[in-house]
Amino acid sequence: MDRIWILERNRFSSNYDNGAREFLQVARRHVNLEGKTLCPCNKCSNISWQHLDTVKTHLMANGFSKTYVRWHYHGEPREDVIIEQESYDSEKDDEMNDALHDNDGQSYFNVGGVDHNVIDEHTMKVDGEEYSKLFGEINFKLYTSCTKFSVMNFLVKLMHIKVLSRWSDKSFDMLLQLLMEALPVENKLPKMLYETKTILRDLGLGYVSIHVCKNDCALFWGKMRILIQDDSKGNMKVAHKVLSYFPITPRLKRLYGSRHTTKDMRWHKEKRVADEGVLRHPADGFAWKDFDEQYPEFASDSRNVRLGLASDGFNPFGNMSTQYSIWHVIVMPYNLPP
User: Fold this and answer.
1) Would you tell me which of 23, 44, 71, 180 could form a disulfide with 76, CB atoms 3.0–4.6 Å apart?
2) Are 188 and 151 a contacting pair, CB within 8 Å?
3) Average pLDDT over residues 309-313
């Protein structure tokens, strides 16, 4: 089943036009009583029902969802479809597959009596589409004849080099533009750093920006966000200070969702060798042992997480002589082995 046309960047090409017409013919047989069908454009993502003429307009304006290769919302059976012309040998890309399986793994663990398989329909649909998109990025070659890199693998390695070499955002954008010109026309590289970050953010590598009062007295978060709106449309004012928050809960879940780290999180109780008078791990210390005595129920389950907080150099009131404009507050899991 050749549906490579959904990856076309030029929506005015004959290949894309023929593919869109093929889809509309299929969709015409699967409309509701109002003559509407689910729209698979990048914005509607098979959530909104539209008339066929509107669907045609959306496909031209927004593009066809790159993950919707099996048209199961339009009558086709739910089976895995491999686009042979664009598939990438994921067996050669174990690191990327591991990252996605780890990220998705949290949905299939029963921890503390809570069945995480029982989730609402909306959550299941959103998560399914998100991971379908990510696996799609892994399985797409960087360009048609490329045998070594997938899109996701190449972007992750490129971002790693950017961080290690301290490239500026502008230099990274310039490099992407050069690579797009140097590689074959059908390459799937994003055009700028922002698009790259958007892809990687879905892997769980993102953060949340929270506006901070310039007097360090409040975080404009949750219900407080309304105080920083600039107009009735919800646009935000320019912040004097910004807190970059890396959400802790999903990161802790991933430690137990990954087959590589879940054993390490229980190491302190199940694998650690306790020698009297030898301090190899926080669990050997008096504070850890005293905590276990005070809270035996918590200590009895090796999966419970113990965290330490470090704020070295934190200077909220300017009492120190440092002139830093940024301070790291780092939370560390003590469960892991040394």
Assistant:
1) 71
2) yes
3) 77
